[in-house]
Amino acid sequence: MSTQPDRWAELTGGQAGEKYAERFARLAESGHDIHGEATFCTALLKKPAARILDAGCGTGRVAIRLAELGHHCTGVDADLSMLAVARRDAPALEWLHGDLAHLDALGLEPDFDLVIAAGNVIPLLASGTESAVVRHLAAVLRPGGLLVTGMGLDAAHLPLPEPPVTLTEFDHWCGEAGLVLRRRYATWGGDPYRQGDGYAVSVHALPEQLDPRPA
């Protein structure tokens, strides 16, 4: 595990699961669409029953909806209070307790069609672990698989006084992990991203491996 707590743990003390779930339940009751991430990811996928890893899954909101849409989902999170809610609400899904900086310790196979890290997962990682996390997320993708992330880029879109990660840094870590930026949006609804926007939804891909055999 990491030698220091991630930024999320520093903010919440690892006890935010029920309050986090209640917040989204209230949003849903008031008529808000709380499934934008799942809808976005499903539109990207080329097959109806994709294998998806929800990295930093929290209470499981995204993974549960993706499973309802027919996909095969695994969730991973380091916050046991969040996982407790996920396991209660969807006991049939696979929920793993683990640090994304040491995702390789969970022994996941590189067969995921899509990895999603929503909810400011990347900015809330422990400082200094970001490049390792991106590398581990890329390592579980199959050739042609997608890494989909959403992150705030200013204080208005983060539970932090200032953003700890820039898009330039993030794209660099993705490039080091063999990922290529395919698209970038300003919202999960697909609004185009413009320089200076406070939020970014990024779609990076692991290129298809070329077949070395002669035709």
UniProtKB/TrEMBL annotation:
Methyltransferase listed as a keyword: yes
InterPro entries, alphabetized: Methyltransf_25 (IPR041698), SAM-dependent_MTases_sf (IPR029063)
Record key words, sorted: Methyltransferase, S-adenosyl-L-methionine, Transferase
GO molecular function: methyltransferase activity
Swiss-Prot/TrEMBL GO biological process terms: methylation
Pfam families: Methyltransf_25
Xref: SUPFAM superfamilies: S-adenosyl-L-methionine-dependent methyltransferases
The keyword Repeat belongs to this UniProt entry's keyword annotation: no
Protein's name according to its UniProt entry: Methyltransferase type 11
Originating species: Streptomyces lincolnensis
